[in-house]
Amino acid sequence: SVGAGVCDRPRSPQPGMAAAAGDAGLAPAAAQEGAELAAVIGATVPTGFEQTAAEEVQEKLGSASRISRDRGKIYFEVPARSLPQVHRLRSVDNLFVVVQEFKDYQFKENKEDALKDLEDLVKKLPWTDPLKVWELNNSLKKKKTKRKKHNLQNPASREKLSDGGEEGGADQNNTNAQEDSAQNPVAVEPTGGKDTENPQGVTSRNGVEEEENNEQSDVNVEVQTSSESGTKAGDGQTGEGEAKVLRFRVTCNRAGDKHSFTSNEAARDFGGAVQEHFQWKADMTNFDVEVLLNIHNNEVVVGIALTEESLHRRNITHFGPTTLRSTLAYGMLRLCDPQPTDIIVDPMCGTGAIPIEGAAEWPYCYHIAGDNSPQAVKRAANNICSLLRKNESKDSSTALGVPLDIIQWDICNLPLRTGSVDIVVTDMPFGKRIGSKKKNWDLYPACLMEMGRICTPGTGRAVLLTQDKKCFAKALSHVGHIWRRAQTVWVNVGGLHAAVYLLRRTWETAEERRPCW
């Protein structure tokens, strides 16, 4: 097995909690006597929307964020009592509490020495407060267990939710392990000594095309533990003196081409040292604690996962061939700055990720969703019903429905009055799983013209996601009199390099067409 290299490791008594080591770039606030427990939280976010996530954290939690050099991550400090609010953030995918961060970690050139340093690092890390935060987070998660079990029994919920947009692309499955590595319960075993790499070779975990080695590894360091080595996180004993052994796994994400070791090797040796330090039992699938080892060039972050599955799965129960992540939908909506009473339209809604996210976060706007596919409309309607049921279960006395309607229509001939819409937000066909690149050359200009017709001149705006950037640029040049490009955000969608365009409606009158009523 992958962990065979540490199976014969001699066991030593569990050491006490060690103080922080070396020069750390960022470490959790020390919990002094009587001081409030604080936590440095790391969050993975859709690549390109790091600033959006930082603004949401500032707005809702009052904390300043730091955007990591490893794109797709932000860090912020909050009091541990704010964990429920942290989990309600709309722009973050996965959360972890930082044990310690090293901004300029010096790796030895020799593989054995570099791995030995990682092993030795375990004893020096300040585990105590992060494990307290993990325990507190666990107590919050237990409240949701019943609802989660109910969802797992629903056949629709077992369908795979793609990490991509409405057009995730054929390479999606290859990159999901990178996008949601914390959720992958399968051991990654090296074959023939090769690294476990992204098959594309140049797309990193955060979707930035760069010529470096990117890999992710969950390594099972199976070491038999004796029942007397009790394991309550932080002190090694349960409150009743019972021998409950915590189970753990280590997930390593490594990006960079100057490391002498693979992610498998780092996870294996670091995990062996974690086991030796805490006397925990390794378990790849039924684990209590997930220790994260993130290595990006010379930046090293050790953390403990606070989410079991990505928060972007919050709204969708009925999935289509492609489903936009709720976190990406939130970023797109926030980009167009919705105001109360705005009418927001998604003319190609697919399973409804964008309008459902919009109705949940901007309930004082009116959301209209539509698609030309009857199956998509049906799935979106089912997802809306699920949202209504969720709202009712929270508080049946105040459940008033959601400001959202859905209709089947033709994107090029919308049944909406000219100038009646404030915002258009949609995920346009990439021409891979749905439609084709050839069809896009006709579809994109027609879509932009029709969106320009329904949008209010002067104040209307559109936020459009597409991977077919060449076709979009050409289409936009044809309608330059009614749309002006204000901003472009480069994003990673299921391993594909895509762009989110913010367009502003000019004062020019759009071409009228004969009303359909």
UniProtKB/TrEMBL annotation:
MF annotations from Gene Ontology: RNA binding; tRNA (guanine) methyltransferase activity
Q: What organism is listed for this UniProt entry?
A: Sylvietta virens
Please give the chief subcellular localization of this protein: cytoplasm
State the protein's name.
Answer: THUM3 protein
Q: Region labeled Disordered — which residues?
A: 1-21, 142-242
Superkingdom of source: Eukaryota
Where are the compositionally biased (Polar residues) regions? 171-184, 216-230
Keywords for this entry?
Answer: Cytoplasm, Methyltransferase, RNA-binding, Transferase, tRNA processing
Biological process (GO), any one? tRNA methylation
Q: Which family does it belong to?
A: Belongs to the methyltransferase superfamily.
